[in-house]
Amino acid sequence: MNRAPVLVVGGGPAGLAAAARLADAGRAVDLVELRPALGGAYHRRPIPGVAPWPIGRAGEARWTRLAAGIERPEIRVRLRTGFLGVDGAGFTLLDDRTTGRVETMRPAAIVIATGAVEMVRPRSGWELPGVTTAGGLQVMMKETGRIPEGRILLAGSGPLLVALAGQMVAAGRPPAAIVETGDPFAHPIAGLGLLAHPGPLLEAAGHMARIFAARVPWRRATTLEAIEPTDAGLAVTLVDRRGARERIVVDRVALHDGIRSNDHGFPEASPTASALPFVAWAGDCREVLGVAAAEIDGARIGEEIAARLAGAPIATTSAIRRLAAARQAQDVLARVFAPARPPTPIERLPRETILCRCEGRTVGDLVDLLEGADAPGGREIKLSGRFSMGACQGRFCAHWVAEAAAGLRPDAPPPTPHDLTGRRWPSRPVSIAALVASNSSPDEPTRPT
Amino acid sequence: MTGGTFSWNGRDVAFRAGESIGAALAGAGVDALGHDPAGRATRWFCGIGACQNCLVRVGGRLVEACLTPAEDGLVVVSADVAEEIDR
Ligand code: FES
């Protein structure tokens, strides 16, 4: 087989499903995953000797199916390998973390399946050690089978907080409290829409039963306003629906205000197959629809790419209808967990609140920048204000900087998060030595067929 | 691979086979991983290689503590520690 392989970036459900379908069609696949194990966030595998985190029967079946699907000779799995970028001629750079070398390849097509990242609204103290994302705490628990020591507070919004709390209770370490900005029980009619999606509903019911049995305080319509380091731990200020404030002290805080596509720094999807390599996006990085939909979407994209590369017509499948159902479920959840009170606009947070963690830029810095000159656009906010310039490429701040800029300059055209971030690569730290050592002009590039 | 110990800023930290540097440090009660160029404390945040808040230095290279597996005898220092500390 001397045809160029299809490169699949990301070893979560979408990437695995896409790789399996491409192999079904006889395509060679290189599947790269940055971590030392496949699975993605939801199916994060534990280290040897640790039992997998219970994820329910449907979840276990999904993982068995996905893992079996890539057990075939056409698929080469490359762990600890990162995707750095692709140039206009289709040369692609891969960072092999095991050898410390950067390699080039010229794939026939690229599937970007890099999942989602969490959103964390800026609030005073969110940048402190001991403060993680809820998903970041969850993957650590899944990987190690352990929950870090101390009193842990979960705060923000959404079903992930409920799931994480339920899992912590099951492990014998209930969280100190769940602080939920929304008021889920206030939307019984919207909640009825979930009856059409019994799987997630049953899972949520199981977690809730455990949370109530363990008497974990679930503070609804309440917002975590600030975190302050003290000798006794992290002092957290909560504001309830009447505006009353309360301070509690914990050791760790896990924040989560929803998720969005992990799409920063990756090449855009190609509109047609004529531009090679053909780039397609699959799963949560294309549209956040959750783990079950990611498998469906990955399979759909895998089939579509195989057909395009073969010049065959793209078969219509049930995938579009099933993705639409997942979208509807997400909409219902968004309504159920809608904030009970409008959140404080970013630009009105205390001036010293960190907006951009990497560069240490604050709300006050942004206000001064936008009140000084003529309305700067997205690029100028980034270049002269050093917002969204840092190592995370704006993954955690560009959204909020754009929102605050729109609030501060209601008359100017609002910048988009992508105005701020651009599509920069390499998308992660790579040693110059490894880059220089890379074979930047392979003698005989493989022609995509 | 089996578990073992690695050196963290000169101190021995035990890890179990397959554990990431970041998870092993959290298990050892280490939350503050060092300082970024702006002088702010760094930490495990996203756990998925997206935030770059957990960068540490291994063999002179900056790597994400949440992604990089611990290895026996590895010398790991905070990102702001330029020179490697001998064990
Ligand atoms: S914790 Fe975010 S990159 Fe490691």
Structural account:
The complex is a heterodimer of chains A (449) and B (87). Chain A has helices spanning 13-24, 56-69, 134-144, 159-170, 188-192, 198-213, 291-310, 319-336, 363-372, 378-385, 398-408, 417-421, 432-437; strands at residues 6-9, 29-32, 75-78, 81-86, 92-96, 101-105, 109-112, 116-118, 131-133, 152-156, 177-180, 218-219, 223-230, 233-239, 245-250, 252-256, 259-261, 278-281, 354-356, 361-362. By secondary structure, chain A is α/β, with parallel strands linked by helices. In chain A, strands 3-2-1-7-18 form a 5-stranded parallel sheet, with helices on one face. A 5-stranded parallel sheet of chain A has the order 9-16-10-11-12. Residues 439-449 of chain A have low confidence and may be disordered. Chain B contains 1 helix and 7 strands, in the order E-E-H-E-E-E-E-E. Chain B has a 5-stranded mixed sheet with strand order 2-1-7-5-6, with helices on one face. By secondary structure, chain B is mostly beta strands. Chains A and B meet through strand 9 and helix 3 of A and helix 1, strand 4 and strand 6 of B. Residues 44-47, 49-54, 64, 66 of chain B line the site of FE2/S2 (inorganic) cluster.
Task: Provide the fold topology.
The complex is a heterodimer of chains A (449) and B (87).
Chain A: E1 6-9, H1 13-24, E2 29-32, H2 56-69, E3 75-78, E4 81-86, E5 92-96, E6 101-105, E7 109-112, E8 116-118, E9 131-133, H3 134-144, E10 152-156, H4 159-170, E11 177-180, H5 188-192, H6 198-213, E12 218-219, E13 223-230, E14 233-239, E15 245-250, E16 252-256, E17 259-261, E18 278-281, H7 291-310, H8 319-336, E19 354-356, E20 361-362, H9 363-372, H10 378-385, H11 398-408, H12 417-421, H13 432-437
Parallel strand pairs in A: 1-2, 1-7, 2-3, 7-18, 9-16, 10-11, 10-16, 11-12
Antiparallel strand pairs in A: 4-5, 5-6, 8-17, 13-14, 14-15, 19-20
Helix pairs in contact in A: 1-2, 1-7, 4-6, 7-8, 9-11
Chain B: E1 4-8, E2 11-15, H1 21-27, E3 34-35, E4 41-42, E5 55-58, E6 61-64, E7 75-78
